[in-house]
Amino acid sequence: MEWLAHNGVPLGTATTITPGYFSQAGYNICPQLSTAYKKISSQTGFSKFRLHGTIISETVLPIELISFNAFPLGDNNKIEWETSSEIKTDWHLIERSYNDPFNFVEIGKLKAAGFSDQKKQYTLLDNRPSNIAYYRLKTIDNDLSFQYSKIIKVERDLEDKILGIYPNPTSNLLNISFHSNDDKSYKFDVFNIVGQNLFTEEIIAKSGYNDKTIDLNMIPTAM
User: Fold this and answer.
1) Dihedral through CA 69, CA 72, CA 77, CA 83, nearest 10?
2) Residue 68 and residue 50: Cα distance in Å, rounded?
3) Nearest Cα to 128, choosing from 164, 81, 152?
4) Is this structure's pTM higher than 0.70?
5) Which of 155-185 are b and which e, b meaning 16 or more Cβ less than 10 Å from the residue's Cβ?
6) Integer distance in angstroms from the first to the last C-alpha of the chain?
7) Which of these, 212, 207, 206, 200, lies nearest to 165 by C-alpha position?
8) What are 158-192's pLDDT values in tens digits?
9) Which among 98, 103, 126 has a CA at the least distance from the CA of 206?
């Protein structure tokens, strides 16, 4: 079975493929792959495949991923993965998207093994979880080529919650971190040290984790 990118460029012959997701630098391959990286069918383990637009011939895949999972752990989400072998790997990056599996940002990275034929285990905590969060693993090799894992989803039942107000007290910038269980507006009251209400700020929040910075220098009575 031959897999093609959306522009029709051959990406090699693949086996051991079950439903999931795989993409690389704009190449979206269908059907989706749930095994972390596509395996090349060859008795010798060598073939041709494409990494972000560059054809690499007669080369082995740089990583064999055994598992990639995430689950709630206290106030955090724990992401863990295990590899059986790594070749020229440099970094493992975890990317997250809130509420949909499309808008990923990096939330942490761990140094990869480089060269290893032994099992390696990795863990990373996401301390800004949401009711719905999607994660994927991006492995960067020492030649700057990279691959993505399947996408996994973690669901939680989080209530509206203030996660942090800092620095407190302050006379300059006030940072507010909070979780919202829906898209809606909130009102935050700011008081001085004697309990006077300096002003009320309305914040439009999105479902999930939110950050807001209030500049108290704009309020004369806050000085």
Assistant:
1) -20
2) 23
3) 164
4) no
5) eeebeeeeeeeeeeeeeeebebebbbbeeee
6) 70
7) 212
8) 888 888 888 888 878 889 988 888 889 998 888 87
9) 98
Cβ atoms of 49 and 22 closer than 8 Å: no
Tokens representing 153 are 């989803």
Phi, psi angle pair for 219, to nearest 5°: -115, 105
Q: Is residue 133 a contact partner of residue 72, using CB atoms and an 8 Å limit?
A: no
Most trustworthy range by pLDDT among 25-29, 100-104, 168-172:
100-104
Contact of 20 with 34, CB cutoff 8 Å = yes
Neighbours of 83 (CB within 10 A): 24
One-letter amino acid of 184: K
Please give the structure tokens belonging to residue 64. 């064999």
Question: What does the block give as tokens for 98?
Answer: 């809130």
Query: How far apart are the C-alpha atoms of 30 and 23, rounded to whole Å?
Result: 9
